[in-house]
Amino acid sequence: MGRKSIKTNKNIYFQSREQAGLTRAQASELMDYVSESRIDKIENDRTSIQPDDVIAMAKAYKKPTLCNYYCTHECSIGKENVTELRPTNLSELSLSIFNSLNALNKQKERLMEIAEDGVVSDDEMTDFLSIQKNLDKISTTVETLKLWMKEALDEN
């Protein structure tokens, strides 16, 4: 392996390659079409990274969080529509899911009352938004757990 870079302010792609313990040449070999010089340009912000580059890096570096990072930080559609996922640990994610599901269980009757007439009236809006917020939390936690699991499987 070559010398370790002393560069400061490395972007996430540079950091991820180094964390994987790969040189640019080794990384390029793992990615069929991403050349060593392209990796250098991406890591030093001299070219824009493309979605296919990110997918290849995520696989080569065994770091699926790169895809979520790209979507939430660099893709104009993703910035508006994708939630940034930050995997923590299994126990924290599990507790978060169970707490959210318990809260939703308490809210289900209210949701049925709101949905009964097919219209969300002004007096129901506060409860409806609270239910929506909890559903968003469940969705984000489930996606984070799936990402955590993918990373754990990739490491083995």
What does this structure look like?
The structure is a single chain. 67% of the residues lie in helices and 0% in strands. The longest helix has 31 residues, at 125-155. With 156 residues, the chain is an all-alpha fold. The protein starts with 11 loop residues before the first helix and ends with a helix. The protein has helices at 12-19, 24-30, 36-43, 51-60, 65-73, 76-81, 90-115, 125-155. The model has no long low-confidence stretch (mean pLDDT 91).
Layout of SSEs?
Blueprint: H1 12-19, H2 24-30, H3 36-43, H4 51-60, H5 65-73, H6 76-81, H7 90-115, H8 125-155
Low-confidence runs of at least 5 consecutive residues = none
Spatial extent as radius of gyration: 21 Å
Mean pLDDT: 91
Amount of helix: 55-70%
Q: Percent of residues in beta strands? A: under 5%
Describe the structure using short key phrases:
elongated, mainly alpha, 156 residues, 8 helices
Summarize the structure.
The protein has 156 residues and is mainly alpha-helical. The protein has 8 helices and no strands.
